């Protein structure tokens, strides 16, 4: 049996608005990430990707609240732990998070090495300043960052250098799982390549066991991750290998999402780009049946009244739709033939 770094079972978390309304941004999500593997999370804005990332750390603060489910990291269930216990014994050592706009995560008033010392102190580790510096210098040099960065303030670094510094700081305590939320956003192409190269190096060198990679830039998922899950309105609607999900999507939303991007690989680069009409549902009052029904061109009457579960079709693949796999494939084949004609 494969060694699983991260296992999530039926995780549900919600936001509570100032009007005491519940918004279930993560709704009964289950997934597994094997050691040495990377998982991509795809979906349009507001689908729950970043909320899932925050929820997986087991550290909740208003307006985000844990409702139910399990988060298991290397066999340890961290669900329901007290915030102080999570902060001291989980964050940074078991799981680390690179937030969106990570370039702004560094304190501009202290040098990078002081920031790292604060991280070590917060976890109560018995390391001298010399130990911390030597370890930080070795880590930075291993990841292609010059040691002099440690003695600089964040305002002295470029955007790409800040991003790579935040990543290096995030893995300083050797976490088992790294969550990267839009790590290449707001960067130029050259800086993006350096960030992606750095993340790959972390995986290949074993500095981290597993990675969750979240981005709006879907072609990156295909080139960076082993597997992909597609989220829509707080739920996972498709799961499969990166190749299967990009080139052979089954769920109508995933199919439309992959058809709306430019992918240079043979087999997709000649496809006509399409758009998905409509908007996602209001999660204060989610629809009774399929959450994609109002936007789906294959919708059936039962889609609007029946709660739809994930269909497991083997080989790690699953999708959330009332239509059988064969029927979906026949529909897509007819549409492809019509397009060629």
TrEMBL record:
GO terms for molecular function: ATP binding; ATP hydrolysis activity. InterPro entries: AAA+_ATPase (IPR003593), ABC_transporter-like_ATP-bd (IPR003439), Oligopep_ABC_C (IPR013563), P-loop_NTPase (IPR027417). GO terms for biological process: peptide transport. Gene3D superfamilies: P-loop containing nucleotide triphosphate hydrolases (3.40.50.300). PROSITE patterns: ABC_TRANSPORTER_2. Transmembrane segments: none annotated. The keyword Nucleotide-binding applies. Residues 11-258 form the ABC transporter domain. Keywords: ATP-binding, Nucleotide-binding, Transport. It comes from the Bacteria. Pfam families: ABC_tran, oligo_HPY. This is Oligopeptide/dipeptide ABC transporter, ATPase subunit. It comes from Candidatus Moduliflexus flocculans.
């Amino acid at each position: 049996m494969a060694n699983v770094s991260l296992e999530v079972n039926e995780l549900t978390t919600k936001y509570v608005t100032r009007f005491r309304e519940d918004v279930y941004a993560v709704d009964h999500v289950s997934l597994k990430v094997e050691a040495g593997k990377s998982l991509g999370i795809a979906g349009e804005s507001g689908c729950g990707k970043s909320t899932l990332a925050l929820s997986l750390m087991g550290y909740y603060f208003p307006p985000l609240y844990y409702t139910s489910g399990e988060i298991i990291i290397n066999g340890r269930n961290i669900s329901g732990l007290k915030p102080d216990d999570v902060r001291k014994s989980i964050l940074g050592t078991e799981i680390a998070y690179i937030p969106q706009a990570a370039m702004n995560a560094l304190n501009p008033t202290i040098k990078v090495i002081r920031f790292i010392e604060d991280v070590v102190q917060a976890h109560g580790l018995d390391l001298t300043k010399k130990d911390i510096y030597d370890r930080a210098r070795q880590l930075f040099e291993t990841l292609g960052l010059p040691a002099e960065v440690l003695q600089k303030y964040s305002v002295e670094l470029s955007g790409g250098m800040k991003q790579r510094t935040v990543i290096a700081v995030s893995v300083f305590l050797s976490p088992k799982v790294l969550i990267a939320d839009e790590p290449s956003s707001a960067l130029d192409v050259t800086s993006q390549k350096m960030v992606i190269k750095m993340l790959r190096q972390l995986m290949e060198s074993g500095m981290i066991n597993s990675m969750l990679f979240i981005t709006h830039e879907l072609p990156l998922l295909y080139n960076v991750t082993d597997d992909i899950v597609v989220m829509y309105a707080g739920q996972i609607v498709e799961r499969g290998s990166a190749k299967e999900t990009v080139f052979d999507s089954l769920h109508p939303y995933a199919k439309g999402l992959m058809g709306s991007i430019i992918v240079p690989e043979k087999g997709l680069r000649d496809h006509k780009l399409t758009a998905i009409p409509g908007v996602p549902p209001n999660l204060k009052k989610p629809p009774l049946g399929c959450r994609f029904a109002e936007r789906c061109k294959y919708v059936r009457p039962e889609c609007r009244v029946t709660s739809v579960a994930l269909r497991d079709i083997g080989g790690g693949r699953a999708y959330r739709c009332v239509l059988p796999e064969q029927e979906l494939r026949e529909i897509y084949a007819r549409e492809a033939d019509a397009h060629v004609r």
